[in-house]
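@here heads up, posting the sequence + SMILES for the S-adenosylmethionine run so it's all in one place. Ping me if the SMILES looks off, I pulled it from an old spreadsheet.
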Amino acid sequence: MLNLKKVFARLPVARSTRAYEFGLDLLPGLPAAPRLLEIGTGQGYSAAWLSRRFPQGQVLSLDIQRTCLKRENLAFGPRRPDFIQATAPSLPLAAASCDAVLLVMTFHCLPAPQQVIHEAARVLRPGGWLLLADVNGQHWLKTPFEWVEHIGISPLTKAYTAGEIDALCQHAGLSQRQAHWRPGKEGGFMMWFTARKPEGHTIDAQAAPITPPGRSQGL
Ligand SMILES: C[S@@+](CC[C@H](N)C(=O)[O-])C[C@H]1O[C@@H](n2cnc3c(N)ncnc32)[C@H](O)[C@@H]1O
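bot reply: prediction finished. Complex structure tokens:
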């Protein structure tokens, strides 16, 4: 299989933290010293950036693989992030232990999207935020994006629509669900989605979960 991971890793966009920057501004009430869980470390540039952005905060970054982490090139803040190897949806964290869970360009490659959102809801404290930034499943480039990923990275890749993510979050009992785009780029290729864990959080068993096409173990 063509290894596009190495190709992508060399592109400047692979080190961009602008998606995090824009997304974090969408989370009102985030404490100055937040406990952040990042799912999908990649090369680690974003975790390092988060540790500089929140010098008093605590960043835990997990990834299914450690091979792409470029430790030697990373500029950390005063408090280094913790990097762990783990496979979403299993998040080795206590319930209500995070102020925000961040999934930036990771959700499209996860095998069990509903379970991931449920796990994110579990580890969030009441009032905590889920921030998801990924390819917009309604953009015309979604199909070429998935096609390239299927060839070079993973056959599991699926770009979700805002409606699908909303349904997953509703099912997990998350509230204040909203899709966002950069000003002037509504409906664009990159989409941000935010949802909050309410006080008195319960699972919404009535909400219909979505079934990702082409997956054997979707939900
Ligand atoms: C495109 S990278 C995004 C990295 C980072 N969030 C960023 O925006 O720079 C996606 C990462 O998700 C990781 N990943 C894929 N499936 C995973 C899973 N089930 N659990 C944890 N990480 C996973 C991949 O190894 C990869 O490093």
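MO: Residues 209-219 have pLDDT under 50 and may be disordered.
MO: One more: Strands lie at 35-39, 58-63, 82-85, 98-104, 124-135, 175-180, 190-196.
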